[in-house]
Every structure is written in C-alpha cells, then in structure tokens.
Specification:
- Helices cover about 35% and strands about 20% of the residues.
- With about 425 residues, the chain is an alpha/beta fold.
- The strands form four sheets. Strands 1, 2, 3, 4, 5, 14, 15 and 16 form an eight-stranded mixed β-sheet that branches. A three-stranded parallel β-sheet has the order 6-7-8.
- Helix 9 runs antiparallel to helix 12 and helix 13 (about 355-365) packs across helix 14 (about 370-375).
- The chain is globular.
Length: about 425
C-alpha cells in the first residue's frame, strides 16, 4: 500500500472515530451526494454474464441505476454530475460474506476497497445500531447484514427455539451455528429459523454432523468445515482422525449440490493462519495490519497470537494438507455449480477489513476459479444468497447503485480489483481521493 493511500485511509479512520463519538460532521471532500450522476464512456462488467459492455453511459438517480447503454442512447440530465470514465471498468460493489465487525472505524475501510455489503457472523446490539446508522447516513460504510449472537452452547430444543425467536424479534437477519450445538436441539433450531425466514449459516456442528447440516439447508461458513466433518469419517471432533484424501471430494460435492447450500470460502484466511503459525514476524510486517483497531492488532503479536506456537511440526504439515485440499474442493464445488461466496473472516484474527476481499479473490483464482467465477463469489452469488438479487449483485437498470470503478479489467487479471478509481454506495460517489 502506498504512503498516499495510507494517509487517505488514516484520515477516513479518524473522521469516522469522530462520527462514532457523536460528532456528525460530513466527511468533507470524500463524496458527492447528488440527485443524478452519470458515468460516461465506462466499460461495464454486468456480472449476469461474462462480458464487457464497452463505452457505456450509466445514469444514476436517487440511489438507483436509472439508465444504462451506449452514450448516443442515453440523455444526461443537465443537473447530473458527469464522471468521465473512459477506459475504466464498472462492476457491482463487492460483498464480504463472512466478517466480524469489531469497531465502526472499520466501516470506511470496506468502502475504500469496493466492499458495499458485509455479512456479519456473530451479531450484537451494537451491530444493529451501526446497521441503522449506515442506512440513515449517520455512518459511512457498507450495508450490514448480521446474524444474532452465535449458537455456541448446548441447549434444550425449547430453549433453542425461544432464542431464535428472540433474535428474530430483535431484528437480526440470520442464525449463526457454531460447533457446540447439540444433536437434540439442532432440528428445532433449524425449524424455527426457517419459520422466521432467517438466514441459516455457520460451522458444521460436531454432534449433528455433516449430513444433518446439509439436510437442513445450512450454508457452510468456511470451506475448512468440510475438512473437520466430512473428511473426518468419525465426525467426532478429533482432528487426528481427518483423512486428507482428495478422492473423497466428488461425493462431498455431490451432496452439497443436492442440498442446495452455499459455501463461504475464507481460503485466504486459512492461508494467513499458516503464515501466523510458521512465520509470524514477516506476517506482522504487512502495513495494512496497522489499520486494525489497536486491541485487534495487539492480539496478533507473538505473545498473544492464537496460532503462534500452537502447532508442532505435524500440525503445520496438516495445515498445509488442509489448505491444498480446500483449494481442490473449492474448484470442484464451483465446477459443479455449488455457489461459492467470498468471505474473509475479517477482522478478529488478522484479515483487514476491506483489503482482505482482494486477497480472497486472488486465492479463489489461484484455486482454479476463473476471474469471472471468483468475481461472482463476491457479487451475484452473494446477492442471491442474501435474498437481494433483485436489488444488487449485477449492474442493471433498477438495481441499487452500489458500484466499484476500476482502472483495469479484472476479467483479465484479478489483481485489478485493487486498482480502485471510485466507489458508489446507494448513489453516493466516493472518488479515489
């Protein structure tokens, strides 16, 4: 990251701290709020198909895409702000489908990296307040979709139903499953979540197991959860029993496809776990880590790091086997049409808000997904999973104006997602400065 961009983000970081403390000044110089805006001469990557619509004019009015087509066909209102975008590439804003929001100061980091929606997977009342503040324009950040607090303890079926109902009443969007959910409560929890039309996502709870999660239609929050469940024939929570056998992948894919579940990759995060376990000092030299909240950054230091010194030689070898197996699995899932979602697990264990989505896209491409398929994981696939395909995830007339403008074509080189010329959130334009 260059020094200029670091200073810009530091300024945004400080400005949002002021907002979070009750000072509601606008972020002067960072955005234009206008009734109409036209991106002129832009190359549109619509993400409903693998193509580039060259030399388009995209007209945005009142937070929506009002018109899209060749310049000669689009009348630009005299009151519209004109953005000359010739040679640049426009696509839907990205969704990070697995985050853990730790501070409102993270929110502008997502927007600065083109992330216009996040799925927060361990909610609290603060997240509901931040979601409302973003919707009302009091905080600058991505749209927040959030589960309630994770189900991470054994309960009776009746208690599980009651807690799902309480989370729905509080306004949470989904239910997060963790390892400890019991076999007895799981069906009741799932039934109540479905009845209340909540998203159902999380780990594969160890007692109910892999097949029960698929029968429930529960989407999987990490590709690595396949390793701990399906690739452990005993499904007993003992990682010593994992079989790192790629010949088992086709059956795992068949079952996932038949169940209609989505899979959040978080593969870049797993790569970073290996880095923290094996070479912590080089890992900590990444300057983007300095944009984490201080208490999060402190937990990555060698003395506090949850992965440093945790794995012996055999443990590190197994991490590497798991990483390789997950990459094969993700490619096979994608080839079979199982929806892959881009998620990063930012920021509690190291991935940096916003920046990590580019690492995830790079890793998906390295695993064998084409750039287009990797981009689908952060756009159209995520919108479909969240039930928002009618309003976001593709560049179409009528959709929300959540957009990212790039300097180069990411279909040719996925690394181009970092070359951001501007971001639009609900029709509000943020240029590169």
């Amino acid at each position: 990251m260059n020094v200029r961009r670091t200073r810009i983000l530091a300024s945004l970081f400080g400005a949002l701290v002021l907002q979070a403390c009750g000072h509601q000044q606008p972020l002067a110089g960072t955005a234009a709020s206008v009734s109409a805006l036209a991106l002129i001469g832009v190359n549109v990557i619509p993400m409903d198909r693998e193509s580039v619509l060259r030399g388009q004019t995209v007209l945005v009015r009142d937070g929506r895409i009002a018109a899209l087509g060749p310049a000669a066909n689009i009348a630009i209102p005299p009151d519209a702000v004109r953005i000359e975008a010739q040679g640049r590439f426009l696509l839907p804003g990205f969704t990070d489908a697995h985050v853990h929001l730790t501070s409102p100061t993270e929110l502008p980091l997502y927007l600065a990296n083109g992330v216009t929606t996040v799925l927060n997977l361990h909610g609290a009342p603060a997240h509901l307040a931040w979601r409302r503040a973003v919707e009302e324009g009091r905080l600058v950040g991505p749209s927040i979709v959030t589960t309630g607090p994770a189900f991470a303890a054994q309960r009776t079926p009746e208690a599980a139903r009651r807690l799902v109902a309480e989370q729905a009443a509080a306004g949470y969007d989904g239910v997060k499953i963790y390892n400890q959910v019991s076999r007895e409560e799981y069906p009741a929890l799932v039934d109540e979540a479905r009845r209340r039309r909540l998203l159902l996502i999380g780990h594969v709870a160890r007692a109910p197991g892999f097949d029960a999660a698929l029968r429930a239609g529960q989407s999987i929050a990490h590709a690595e959860e396949f390793i701990y469940s399906y690739f452990n024939p005993r499904e007993d929570g003992d990682d010593e029993h994992i079989v790192y056998d790629a010949t088992r992948i086709p059956e795992a894919v068949r079952r996932a496809r038949a169940a209609g579940v989505s899979v959040v990759a978080t593969i870049a995060m797993f790569r970073d776990i290996i880095a923290q376990a094996t070479a912590i000092e080089p890992y900590l030299r990444n300057p983007e880590l300095n944009l984490l909240a201080p208490w999060v950054r402190a937990r990555l230091e060698p003395d506090a790091n949850r992965y440093q010194n945790r794995f012996g030689e055999d443990g590190v070898a197994n991490l590497r086997k798991s990483y390789a197996l997950q990459r094969e699995l993700l490619r096979a899932l994608d080839d079979a049409g199982v929806p892959i979602l881009a998620g990063t697990d930012a920021t509690a264990i190291g991935p940096v808000a916003g920046f990590s989505i580019h690492e995830e896209l790079l890793e998906l491409n390295a695993a064998g997904l084409t750039p287009y398929r990797a981009l689908r994981a952060a756009t159209a696939n995520a919108a479909t999973y969240l039930g928002r395909a009618s309003t976001q995830g593709t560049v179409e007339v009528g959709k929300r104006a959540d957009l990212v403008l790039l300097e180069a074509n990411p279909l040719e080189d996925i690394r181009s997602t970092r070359q951001i010329a501007g971001v639009m959130k609900d029709g509000r334009w943020f240029d590169a400065d």
